[in-house]
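User: Structure please.
Assistant: Input sequence and predicted structure:
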Amino acid sequence: MFAYTDFMKATGFDQRPDFSRMGLTLLVASALILAIRTARWPATLDENLVSPELDQEIDYAVLLATRTLFRLLKHKESMFPSRREPRYAPGEEEDPA
């Protein structure tokens, strides 16, 4: 701590989802959705790698994976990695509400 700040006293801990570890989950889920949705597409090679249809499918796969992840977090938070975050007592200048 800095010399000019007050020491904050931890009064307990809260279990919160560890969002920093969920990026890989979102990436894998998006890739699986994209693979399933595009499995019947013909295999073509585009020199510029520009395909509006594929870009649209990627955006939709990410949207589906994100919505599913947050819906699961809302209802089944215990399924995901979590971490303990300290809960601090309010300082003298802070409103306890």
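Helices lie at 23-37, 52-75.
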